[in-house]
UniProtKB/TrEMBL annotation:
GO terms for cellular component: plasma membrane. GO terms for molecular function: amino acid transmembrane transporter activity. The keyword Transcription regulation does not apply. It is found in: Cell membrane. The chain crosses the membrane at residues 42-62, 74-92, 144-169, 181-198. This is LysE family translocator. It is a multi-pass membrane protein. Its main location: membrane. The keyword Hydrolase does not apply. Pfam families: LysE. One of its GO terms (biological process) is cysteine export across plasma membrane.
């Protein structure tokens, strides 16, 4: 049990990081409103899958790339910012749902998973999580898998709240005008995350 003592503080860290606003949660809210919770599940699970792989890779040495080659971090910020602006435009211009189904599609599992590698908040989470809570004793690979897996289990209900919140908003919105305002606002909030990325 002592070897798993790091999971308690790690869970508190993950709750604080995943329940607060960020690119993933803003997009999950928009997706939940426009497509419903069930159709947003691949997006939600893609976030978890992408973060799991990213966190594990960081623990096994990927984070060192940032230290040795700062240009990689700069390129990642630029790519992440451009992709986020593209997603923001898609959210802002999404047509209102009709009869419970929206034209267009929510992010797929693979799109959401790939985005985590260009998402600075995910990198900050992964780097801090592994630097602060990865045990020095025992097998590094096993510890990294346990910590990354546990982190995503903690994150699941936190990010699900945002998709559920979006679904609740979607039921409240009536008429094309209110949908245009909502989607425009969510698109603007998504684009505003670029300030966090480049700041």
């Amino acid at each position: 049990m002592e070897t798993l003592a790091f999971l308690g503080p790690a869970s508190l860290f993950m709750i604080s990081m995943t329940i607060t606003p960020g690119p993933n949660n803003v997009m999950l809210t928009a997706s939940g409103a426009n497509y419903g919770f069930r159709r947003t599940l691949p997006h939600l699970l893609g976030i978890m899958g992408g973060c799991f792989v990213l966190f594990g890779a960081i623990a096994l040495g990927l984070g060192i790339v940032f230290e040795r080659f700062p240009i990689v971090q700069t390129l990642l910020r630029i790519i992440g910012s451009l992709y986020l602006l593209y997603l923001a435009w898609g959210i802002a211009t999404a047509p209102p749902p009709e009869f419970g189904n929206a034209e267009g599609r929510p992010l797929s599992f693979w799109q959401a998973a790939a985005f985590q590698f260009a998402n600075p908040k995910a990198w900050v989470m992964g780097l801090t999580l592994m630097a602060s809570f990865l045990p020095e004793e025992g097998n590094t690979f096993v510890n990294a898998l346990v910590l990354a897996g546990f982190a995503e289990l903690v994150a699941l209900p936190c990010i699900s709240l945002w998709a559920g919140f979006g679904m609740a908003i979607g039921r409240w919105l009536k008429g094309p005008r209110s949908w245009r305002v909502f989607n425009g606002t969510m698109g603007a909030l998504t684009a505003a995350c670029v300030i966090f990325i480049l700041g």
